[in-house]
């Protein structure tokens, strides 16, 4: 029996663990448990009040985006991932991840409560700002496909939809779009601003790095166990999803930083986005597309994305090479 399946009676016994990577990630996630109010954000209020309008706009824009999208990830996990897996260890990890997404959402609520931000305006942004709404619609489309159309996980088409959903959420939303936002949020600390907010983001990044590892491992496991998915056409589609996501993020970042702030502008962020996209493509077995350097090398102190590549070295599944082999 593979990791995919919809049986209620399967996955009721934890041992022997079949997918040790999932169990290891669960143990690490539990060890990482934290709560937003452990950080005193009030100390950052003075910073926020003395920042420029453009800087405050960037913080508000980020919180406006992250707040609903953390909850959107939970919907993707509950409706698009959890029901289609057999392994108890995978279910344990997903349960902890869902709690973490809730915790992240409460963290951004904490920011909204602490800083003088118009909550109604912030809440409305994910609908009112076209570039933000476009990213959300891209994500929602994949859940809708799994909810409103019957997904038969036993068919090649059903398994493809399962993979598409994982790529949309674990790779694009959490592994590229979220990381881009984290970099902007942490850039304030580089200038000795919003240091406690930066610590909160550090904790969120630590969680998200595990979410990314889980999603990547799950994708590679499903591909390894289901050779029918390893076609050049499907590989090309998955790669194109990631390239389209980069273009959407570029538009979003132009709205996030229309004029640029000290040491940071949209071009800088978009180079980081392309750097992230290359890392994700390589982790999936593709070659790099953009071949850009990391402009935010200081982010390595918070979370070096290159470390993620090493995590998958033990898995022999290379998406592109398998696809070519099957053609």
Automatic annotation (TrEMBL):
It comes from Humibacter ginsenosidimutans. Keywords: Deoxyribonucleotide synthesis, Iron, Membrane, Metal-binding, Oxidoreductase, Transmembrane, Transmembrane helix. It catalyses: a 2'-deoxyribonucleoside 5'-diphosphate + [thioredoxin]-disulfide + H2O = a ribonucleoside 5'-diphosphate + [thioredoxin]-dithiol. This is Ribonucleoside-diphosphate reductase subunit beta. GO terms for biological process: deoxyribonucleotide biosynthetic process. Fe cation 1 binds at residues 70, 101, 104. It is an enzyme of class 1 (oxidoreductase). Coiled coil: none annotated. SUPFAM superfamilies: Ferritin-like. Belongs to the ribonucleoside diphosphate reductase small chain family. One of its GO terms (molecular function) is ribonucleoside-diphosphate reductase activity, thioredoxin disulfide as acceptor. The lineage of its organism: Bacteria, Bacillati, Actinomycetota, Actinomycetes, Micrococcales. Its EC number is 1.17.4.1. Tetramer of two alpha and two beta subunits. Binds 2 iron ions per subunit. Provides the precursors necessary for DNA synthesis. Catalyzes the biosynthesis of deoxyribonucleotides from the corresponding ribonucleotides. The chain crosses the membrane at residues 166-188.
